[in-house]
Each structure stands twice: as structure tokens, then as C-alpha cells.
Amino acid sequence: MTKAIYQALATVSVTFGIISDGMHYGWSSPVLPILLSDKSPFEFHPRQIVWIEVWLLLGVLAGVPIADVAVKRYGGRKPILAANGLSVTAWIVIALAGTIKLVYLARFLAGLAARVASVGASLYIAEISDKRSRQWLNSVINVMMLLGVVIVYILVPLLPILTSSLIGVAFLLLQMVSFPCTPEPTRDSAEAQVLEEPLREGERITFGEFIKEENSLKTLLIVMCVSCWQQLAGFGVVVMNLHAILTDAHCEMNTDTVAVIFATFLVVATPLGVGLVPKLGSKALLLISSCGTGIVLLVFGVHLDNERQEEFNSWIPIVLVVLYALVFQLGLGLAPMTIAEELLPRNTQEIVKTISDSASVVVSIVMVVLYPLVSTFLGIGVPWYIFSVFTFLLYLFTLFRIPDTTK
User: Fold this and answer.
1) For residue range 208-222, what is the model confidence (pLDDT) as tens digits?
2) Alpha carbons 89 and 95: distance in angstroms, whole number
């Protein structure tokens, strides 16, 4: 078996369960119309919508320190198995839940499990990969997550909540069954030995040591800002509320179908974006992505504010959500990963990603909470104007503050 095939198969094995995490992430969008209907398995009020989304994100935030401790103590593989157990528990609770409070609990557990699994997978990939392949292999985490979103968008409208939840469990059980066949990280690559062995021996750089390095705070600020800007561009709001958004936009096509198309384009755009990074560089892609995303968001806001949108142009939201998926994921969706790889030495990437991911989750919580409030009190198109403004500000930030590593 060639080294590339070994790395690819090992990566798929440790990331397969992340499909379930993606299902948890996208679950709220297709399930909310069900919970608000007569088919709801328990009493549910519109004011509880935001909490279904927030509890997942709170779980992710709680998982940040837990994941950090777990991977330092046990490496990448064991925390992934533990995360799978938590995620299985979350799906079972959702499947059998008779009250909204149990769903909140399940969402929290799912968020915590997702964080631990992604960090464990990232560490494992770092240990088996060399510099040339690491970016491609890390992108598999994104692909698996987005595949989960595609799958949950397909399943939830068609199947009972119990059945779709059990399918989520099935993905996790498949990974757990195949996990003993997943190879332990090897030291075949001389580069991997040099870069990864200090991390394995607990010699990771501390935050105090990190800030003493030249330009460290500037680089941290860049990666953290780009990570937060993903949420300021509305990504979390869109994925968690897409079906309701399409309904508000009076989409001509069935909203379930459009949602699946949207998520599929996110999946397709991920390897395209990774392939373009060596040719154009992260900065150029981010400039294109931020400008394109800002325009799409602005047009979408105008469409929502159009009082006659029901009479004509009902195809516009279909085109806009597809364009959003493409232009966002080609640059902004991958930017935190690619910029960190370009600007940071390996031994500092972990601490920077931990800080930037934490900040991104906090911003995501704020956006998810504010979105319905702003829509209700200021107008349905206003949140999209705000997302658009933030995205154009990212264009300026990228233009003047992010270095061009292709030169």
C-alpha cells in the first residue's frame, strides 16, 4: 500500500463519525417545521427554536477545554471513541425525547462530542501526514461534516425523527466497528518525526511562550478574525435555519430540495477550494469569496424586503443560496484552516486554533440569538444587510491586513 493511500484510508476511518456531527449541526433546520406542526412528538413553542440551536453551540464551547485535555493525555484515537459514545447517547435521547428539555440535553452532548471528535481527528491527521498532504487530509473533516448536513436535510423531512436519529447512530456504530482496523500513527515521514514528536511528548508551546514570539499576536488576530467572520457572514444562521429562510423568501422550488442542493454545493466546493489554494493563495481566494458572499447576501436581503416577491422572481432565492454555498466555501469556508497552515509553524497551530475556534463559537451563539430578534423588530431583510456589511469589511481586512504568502 502506498503512503498516500494509507493516509487517505486512515483519514476516512477516523473522520467517518463526523458525518453524524454534521447531521447534528444541520438537524434544526429541517426538524423545526415538524416541531412547529401537529406532528411534533412533544409540546413546542416558537420561542424555543433558538435554544435548540444555542444548546448545540454551548456544547461545542464546553468541549473546547475538554478536547484539549483529552488529546494531550490520550492522543487522537481514544477521544474519538469517547465522542462517538456521547453522540450515540445524544441521538438516542432525541429519538425518545418526550420533552424539549431532553432535546436541549441531547444537543449539548452532541456539540461536546463534535468538538472532541474534530480535535481528535485533526491530531491524528497531523500525526500520519506530511506537509504536502496535510491540507487535503484536514479538508476531509470539513467534507464529512457537510456530508452530514446533506444527509440530515434528506432524511428528516422524509422519515420519522426516531428513524433519522437511528441512522445517525448507524454512522457512529460503523466507525466504532471499523476503528480497531485504523492504524496507529507511524513515523515513516522524516518531516512528521521532526514536526510531530515534540507535540506527542507534551512539549506543546504554551500561550505565554507563544505571545513572546515575533508577530504572534498579529497572526493570532488574523486567524481569529477570519474564523469569527465565518459566522458574521451568516453561515451558522443559514445552515441551522435554511428551511425557514427559504420559506420566508417564497422559494419556487420545494424547500427540502433546495436545502439539499445548497448543502451538496458546500461539499463540492470544499475540494475545489483546497485545490485552488496552491494556485491562487489563501488571500486571493478570501478576497474573491468575501466580495462574492457580500454581494449575494445584499441581494438576498433586497429580495426579502421586496413586498411583491410572492408574485415574481421566486427563482431568485434558489440561485442565491447556491451562489452563497459556492463563493462562501471556496474561500471563507476554508480560510481559517488554510491561513493557519500558511502563517503558523506546526507547534503553534494548536493553540491558535483553540483560541480562534472558541471565539468563533461565541460569535456564532450571538448571531443565532440575534437573528430572530433583528428579523422580528427591524425587518426580515435587515440581518442579511448586516451579514453583507460584515463580509465587505472582511474584504477590506483581507486586503490590508492578511499577508500574501504566494510571493
Assistant:
1) 667 767 677 888 999
2) 10
